[in-house]
Amino acid sequence: MIPRYQRILFWSLIAGILLMTAFLLRGCEQAHRRLAAPNDFTPIAAPTSTSTEDVTLYIANDAEASITPATESISLPQTPTLRARALVEHLLAAYADPGSAHPLQGGPAVDDVFILPDPQPAAGDQPGQLAVVNLRGAFVNNHPSGIQVEALTIDSIIGTLHAALPEITAIRFLVDGQPHDTLSGHADLLRTYPATDTTTKPMPPIETK
Amino acid sequence: MTLLARNLAVCLFVALLTGITVAQQPRTIIFLDPAHGGPDPGAHLPNDLLEKNFTLAFATRLRAQLSTSGFAVISTRDADPAVPFTTDQRAEIANHAHPAACLILHATDSGSGVHIITSALTPTQDDPHAPIPWNTAQSASIPQSLTLANEIGLALQRAKLPVILSRASIRPVDNLTCPALAIEIAPLGAGDDQTPITDANYQQNIAKAIATALINWRTRQQQAAAAPAAAAGGAQK
After folding, report:
1. Is the CB of A148 less than 8 angstroms away from the CB of B166?
2. Same-domain pairing of A14 and A96
3. Residue range of the domain that includes B187
4. Domain that holds residue A18
5. Minimal Cα distance from B40: which residue of A?
6. Cβ separation A148–B163 shorter than 8 A
7. Which of B44, B110, B135 sits opposite A148 (nearest CB)?
8. Judging by beta carbons within 10 Å of its beta carbon (0-12, 13-18, 19+), is residue A174 exposed, middle or buried?
């Protein structure tokens, strides 16, 4: 004969097991629904046609140590900060393509671009805007090291931003939100660069008398 | 007075004159900065070579070449110190020494040939006695730096070495008050025929060309310094 208290304990444990099973099943169901949500391709908003526009990219070439403007047709957001970020990201992604004349490692390169009123406009100039390009640490760590190759990357970004957003008069660089000495051991990232046309074609040495 | 005593007196007089002349013409100082060092290895070059070791080896080679050509050489490091000078300290050493030329030595795996880089700062033509900000100290010496870059570029070209003259913002070049250049050595050529930067012959040719250019540079500087004095002497007559 089983004592009464043992029967009560047995049925209490069975009830507990059933409750826990129900709880786990419900948890699994919720987790599955949450994970499946991003894969829901049901259209919610009406599609919009994105128009492309011509932009000038300042393309670097390591062998010639040159920067050459090239026009490309791409779609860009209209908000200046997003536009600047998309532009720089597009430019740096182009350098990761096979056969690039200025090969850089692929992957996201820019965290943000902030556009602020220039706190130190050049004397006599209209107050312009300062673009702060916040580069990702991973991009900086994988950038080739050398004075010329780093300077070409900087000049390429400056020229491209200057051409697309002429209201920008100065450009600064951060890495992961912090000031950083150099891009990869050489090019100075602590100074403020004037936004100018950075087209470069090195001249050979000239014979002097 | 015997002939021997007379000869001895003449020799002593000539030696005295030579000594005075040498004392009046101090040797031209060249400042060399083998970049990086200590915990800062610089670029990681092929065959596990670190840029800091290459720049030191090349500086030793260039120093020997320059000393043979009659220059006095100051270097920021002769070994790989545990705590190297910062770029600001390197610039301070150079600015205190008042050298005729400052050469900052670098190496890279990108590009080809020798890259001669001058500061990207805008030249200033202000009052020479006005205070100069530290970050733009080089701006007053840009014209001389460009002339020196051209001189070294020509010498390298004559030595059949590809050379690229360009401009960039790098420390300590921007903080130097002397004619200053960064010399970045890249492999020679491309593909299977590439000569690595470790090639002793390649390094020696570069060092020789730089020494030749600096001799020409020194001669031009001396001629430029002598010309106003000669003109002033002529005007007094």
Report:
1. yes
2. no
3. 27-123+137-217
4. 4-33
5. A185
6. no
7. B110
8. middle
A12 and A64 both lie in a single domain: no
Q: Cα–Cα distance between B143 and A161 in angstroms, integer?
A: 29
Task: Write out pLDDT tens, residues A141-199.
Answer: 999 999 999 999 999 999 999 999 999 999 999 999 999 999 999 999 998 999 999 99
Mutate one of A148, A157, A199, A207 to test the B interface: name it (highest B CB count within 10 A).
Answer: A148
Q: Does residue A15 sit in the same domain as residue A117?
A: no
- CA of B64 vs chain A CAs: smallest distance (Å): 25
Residue A94, classified by CB atoms within 10 Å of its CB into exposed (0-12), middle (13-18) or buried (19+), is middle
Residue B157 lies in a domain: yes
Q: Are A182 and A189 in contact (CB under 8 A)?
A: yes
> Do A10 and A66 belong together in one domain?
no
Residue-wise pLDDT for A87-133, tens only, equals 999 999 999 988 899 999 888 899 999 999 887 766 566 678 999 99
Interacting residues of A164 by C-beta distance below 8 A, sequence separation 6+: A55, A56, A83, A84, A87
Inter-chain residue contact B169 with A188, CB threshold 8 Å: yes
For position A166, what pLDDT does the model report? 92
What's the domain count of chain A? 2
On whether residue A45 sits in a domain, the answer given is no
Residues A180 and A116 in one domain: yes
Please answer yes or no on whether A208 and B170 come within 8 Å at the CB atom.
Answer: no
